[in-house]
Amino acid sequence: MEERLQKVLASAGVASRREAEKIILAGRVKVNGKLVTELGIKVDPNHCRITVDGNPVKQEKKAYYIFNKPRGIVTTMSDDKGRKCIADFVKDLPERVFAVGRLDYNTEGLLLLTNDGELAQKLMHPSHEVNKTYLVKVPGLCKDEVLDKLRMGVKLEDGMTAPAIVNLRGYDTEGKFTMFDITIHEGRNRQVRRMCDFIGFPVRELKRIKLGPIKLQNLGRGKFRPLYEEELEALLKAAKL
Ligand code: URA
Description:
Bound molecules: uracil
Largest sheet: 9 strands, mixed
Number of strands: 17
Low-confidence stretches: none
């Protein structure tokens, strides 16, 4: 069956569909030996030879993993500053997976790793509004009324944030820290950190514990496991696939 070239590249796990478009526009893709730099063309992946940077593109079995990213790791497959990145953890996996979305260098927690470019694209698109829940630790005693500001939405330099679901979890015994969880569906850059800066309680620790229907639970730091079938079904449903 014929499909758009960028979709074929995404389903083969080369990159998300948007990244695949960039790869085509950059003149890195050939179909049956002919350079393609337009986005419109349709190809039948079973009846033509596609290469990226000269390497043949094979349709890979779809793979889905949940990963518990530790702090101090970049959410990329390589880092020009030589910092540890996701690739260091997944190099022994049989499939070529990439992370869906990103977590800051100092954020830990749930990342989804897959070679399913279509799912990645859907989950990252703001119109799908997949919820993300973070556990937040801030210094000092942050009263529940202050958290109301996050619940209502705060004004950041790139506009108001949508209302968030926030649950105060408690204070440590000496009252030096406040813990709460926050659920948002937007995916702006450093959003939770900037929201917390706005209310005057800068984030000390940040951990993503839920993405759509998928929960991190007790998966160890730096560990990953394949998604269970029920989790995958729920995730595909959440992404409206
Ligand atoms: N919000 C942030 O501020 N950082 C992350 O890594 C994720 C969400």
